[in-house]
Predict the 3D structure of the following.
Amino acid sequence: MHNKSRSYLVTGALWGGLPLFLACNAFAQPSLTGQIGYINMPSARVGEDGTFSLGYGYDKPYGILWTSTTVLPWLEVSGRYTSISGVPGFNDQQYGGSYGRYKDKAIDLKLKLWDESAWMPAIAFGATDIQGNRLWKGKYLVASKYLWPNLEVSLGYGQQRINGVFGGMRFTPSFLPNWSLVAEYDANDYRSDPFSYHTFAEKRNKGPAVGLEYQWGWLGLQVARQKTHSSINARIDIPLNLKEFVPKIQESAYYTGTPDLPSRPTLAEWQSDPDRAKALSIALGKQDFKNIRIAMQRDSLVMELGNSRISNVGRAVGRAVRTALYFAPLETREIRVVYTELEQPIATYSFYDLPTLNDYLLGKVGRDRFLQTVSIKSGRDDELRPLDSRALALTLREGIDVNLLTNQEGDLIQVTSDDTEDNRFHLAPKMGVYFNDPSGAFHYDIMAEATYKRRLAKGLYLDSALSADLYNTITAVKQPSNSLLPHVRSDIADYKRIKTPKLNRLLLNQYITLSPSTYARLSTGLYEEMFRGAGGQVLYYPGFNKNWAMDLSVDGLQQRDVNGWFGKRDYQTVTALASLHYKLPMGVTATMRAGRFLAKDDGVRLELKRRFRSGIEAGFWYTKTNGNDITNPGSPSNPYNDKGIFLSIPLNSLLTFDARTVGEFSLSPWTRDVGQMVMSPGDLYEMLSDPKRDIDSYDGLGNFAERPDEQNLPQVTPLQPSYHPWPVIRLRLEDSGNRWLELDDKGAALAASAVATFAAAGLDRPVDRFFSKRQDNRLIRNWGKLGKDLPIAAVALSGAAFALGDDRLSNTGLIALESSVAAVAGSSALKLAVNRARPGSGGDSTWRTQEPGESRLQSSFTSNHSAVLFASVTPFAKEYDQPWLYGVAALGAAGRAASRDHWLSDVTAGGLLGYAMGNWLWQAQRNDSRYRSSLIATPKQLGMQIEVPLR
């Protein structure tokens, strides 16, 4: 590993980052809340796709630290941390005397509904403070239009905090492109703000405001004059869809031989002289390859290896193959590379034509010709025998020493030692930051952490971490936890207060490959600072061109004591979480976890993240369990649910050399017990998803040859992600509309449905009387639960069929989901029109209306559950000729009458409505070939092909 100097990083930033920094001057302007807009009011614009903005504004009496990200081309998510001058955070000085001013967190969303066209303005809907205390909640609709290229105007209407009509305009002179004049009519209702009677907000009214903006590269500043005061807003915009922010001026070149390199041996010389394989392994080891295994199998040179530094799998394989060409026996006809992670095979690359391989590396033939001589298979090729390390293990540790490095892995300073068997020692300072505790809004912890990883056997690793506290302010956190759940996280301050050295991790991890698509891990030891235990994980990650993976993690855990060694607390638990990971368009990955969490609470956790072109990932999670956390801001009627946002930054986008190190940051409550998970000893999906994604992208070779003439190919430099579902949506809408017009029996079907509903209405009273007398019967109660849960299960299974099935099953699952949505829409319309009271609400008539003030959408006619259930099963029953599914649907729907949530006629009408929707949409869209699309990726073109068969 080469020593890295800070001067190289600075030079790289000046060479590549500064021109880019100065050139980026077209970003939309955020308002004081972080949303794109004017001074306080929003516009219909969102930032450039992938733009991350961070800023601070002061608008008396509010100090606002804000961040905003355009997570999708049409979705902007903003977060802000607002402090209010003149209002203390806590009145009890002993409890929160060091907290300072009152502070509140808020999350805002803006959804762009319509892009601007020649005649139409851009239109957006926004919602503010959508979670938590909701002190600043509101919603608005706004339209924006460029009247001239340098003049934008907006007009909108808001409710709650933005109260009424608002507007804004921005003028950017063509001769001063970095300067803008802004004006707005501010419609915020400041006098209704929290604590307004104690602050300057009481003196603020709706009215005009003007401002001046200046933007220099990624930096922006706004000063504004409002009716009663002035405001300021400063920010930095970072485009996350850039491939990298600094050039790789310090990246080592690929292998080109050495002056003393001997000539290539014959096969007999290779087999008789172990030093031949040793020389190749040493050359690979100097390029950061690990766990190197080399063998000749007949006339094939086989290498098993991974790389600890090169971030792209194709590029790593290219360097390994290029090096092998200098050492391979003359009789070699084929080179095969099994790329591994912790000795677990990810993919096998086979190169069948070595002259073409050599010509491609030298730039003599094109990529399309080369691809004809390459094969890539998931996992280890069945034809290959596993390799061992007998000839290499005793020789590959030579020359390993301890180096003092800077700017390596993002550490200011560090001491490291590693070798080609993936044994590694690392010592560096670390810092943790903690927000929003009553004892102070900001706490931090600075420590020195030493980690040591050692390979003990094939796939068996020792992983340890020892830390020593250098300085922290967490000792000021003295408030005991008031959580009613087991204190699995809320006592974290007790652990952080210990200043003596602590053993944070001491683990044995055994990694196993069960099949080319199935991986497993067994772990035992000290998992993290708060828990120890034993457990494992099994991951199923299908082969190429699959969008999903699933895993199961089970861990038996015991809480450790605060001293950080081998002591324990009494609390024990078993966590078990099943996870489904699904890749969506635009680099978005959705993960759903379900099972038992750390505080013995059962529930589900949803994670959504997007990977931008730079490799940076941003996302959030939301957990819903039966933990019933009623500590503030939770309450008995609205328990708290765990939630948070996270950011993952690959340091290779910031460094002057390639690296695989990733910095991870999250923002979430750090003293909550509900919905918590133990720190994984080695999550298999996180370990394998990056290399699997590289292999699945385009032709799987990435920047294999590192040829200058290929750097603009999408296979080497992926294009900015885009997704345009409208063509397929339009086709489905057209087919559905045409099919509706072609149905000749609509009137007869409607008449038959009306007869069936009236017949069921005649039985409403006796059926309800029958079930009302048996509500204590266990069978009846379970029947009611089935009627409530079965529609949810049907929709979930339809979604799974859509996401995971083959073309036919996926299309049927999508039709089922569409039918469910249509059925709910139709059922809701009937609820609004009829407003029927539910059983058990009093009165003599079964068709009485609800009491005034009750929501019409919660009325009885028709049953949404029944409609969704029949809408979900009908496409499957039709497509696969399985009429018994109707019986399952009828049984579940009848459970709504058994639980007395609906009359029998509600259930009947809902079922008929669901069947009608499912049958109609299945007939219209069953020909799935009409909607199939495929990605075309060649050296000369990139596009989408949509198959539309002629009728």
The first helix runs from residue 6 to 23. Residues 1-27, 390-401, 934-951 have pLDDT under 50 and may be disordered. The longest strand covers residues 440-457. The CA atoms of residues 522 and 536 lie 4 Å apart.
